[in-house]
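Annual report, structural modelling task.

Input specification for the 2-acetamido-2-deoxy-beta-D-glucopyranose complex:
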Amino acid sequence: MAFLPALNPRLARSLLPSVVALVLIFLAFFSYTRYAPNGTPTFLKSIPGINSNSKTEPTPTIDRRPPTTHAPPKYKPTPTWAPPPVVDPFPLLANSAARPPPIPHYNMPRPNMHEEYGLERPPPLFIGFTRAWPMLLQAVVCYITAGWPADNIYIVENTGVHNKNKEGKLSLQNPFYLNHTTLQRLGVHVVQTPTLLTFAQMQNFFLSIAYQHDHPYYFYSHQDVVVFSFEDGPDNYDRPATRDYDFYDDEDKQAALYPAAANQLGYRSIYENCLRDLQMAIEKGERWGFRFYQYDHLALVNREAMDAVGGWDSLIPYYTTDCDMNGKLGMDGWTMKERRVGLINDVSTTFADLEVLYRNPALPRPKFVDPNPPSPEMQAKIDKEMAEKEAKAAKEEAARTDIEEKMPADPVAYFRILNKIGVDMGHYKYRARDVRNTWQTSQRGGQGEPFYYDPVGFARSWALLNEAGRTVYSEKWGHRDCNLVEGTALRMDDQWKVEKDWEEKKD
Ligand SMILES: *[C@@H]1O[C@H](CO)[C@@H](O)[C@H](O)[C@H]1NC(C)=O
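The model returned the following structure:
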């Protein structure tokens, strides 16, 4: 906890609860993390039989409740609509023992590429996972086929189901299902959180791993992304939620906006661009905190900056905890820049068959599927909201029918088709209000499985905690908007000391 003396005592006091939480997480993790390269914590390995894959039938529910004289509880109406069962999006891996296909040759990472960029060690990429396996698997396969070395990818399993996924005890329809075998076959690591963490706690957990394994820098990505390298060179598609880029100079701007295409001299995969961007951040000598690639759908973190501002506020569990972090970094003079290293789509859907990412020309033209299509009522609302856009899309769809159905053998030509679908997926996610996060509630099964939690209840609790976090944030800073640096004169020491800066609406 070397960062404590660096903080002033007032701040340290107000951060004490988060620090205590951090210490607890840290300690809990310490006993867990001596994980071997295959992701098996050695601590757990030493307990005989704990990792055995012996499947036991779930015991049928027996009513063990002592008798009662109270009236029976009143039940909520049964939901009239449920999403269809999810389908594993990578049949090749799910149904055979085949090795994953080879990735496009131009995206193959050169051995020890990090050394070419002056880095002693490759920084890890953390991808947190709580729910929705098809989305996670898609993100992982995207990173690998875009050229990120599988061995540098760490899936952080934050499901709260302890070793049950590792033991293969959960079924695909369980929201918390994650398949360790499949991830191992893809060559990525799985790290388990000791218990279910919130977003803020998981960020602190990434930091904790970075301390444990001595990584001064690390990347993290969300699981709801479709990511590509600049295989086709410059790309002018409009992607929702893209922010303005920060460039260091004209040459830098040129390199970011007009990248060389695959097979051309100077082509760089997204991984190589990330290493290069890290090297630049270090060499510019800036006091830098984050580098964002499509905000934090993919982000690069400087551990030193996290240190200086006391990490993430664990008491602001989900949304606005980033506003708090960015505010603290900004007030303390750490830069955050929006940079361009590849093509990142924020999505809520998956390719129907992820094998297309390996460019298999024998597969039919790719489609994307919504794991949680809107209910009929929701769909009616969406249709109304976007009657116009919809009509246009339908016309485009009709025009598309005369497109050749066969997929090209050239991986770059194949990429062009995938890229366009990735962009469409992004627009689909942002097509209407309130549909962006529906993918999180796509699976509704798992009754009777270990650590089962009612999926609808989980989603509702999440929303409540999220709202509570917004309240904590607004009281902490006396400010509600996500612009502590640009929108206020607040300083780090002001947290929890200022009155609110807005008028409560009176009616
Ligand atoms: C995990 O995936 C493998 C294929 O990679 C499959 O054989 C196995 O049945 C899956 N496990 C579970 C629990 O679904």
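The radius of gyration is 24 Å.
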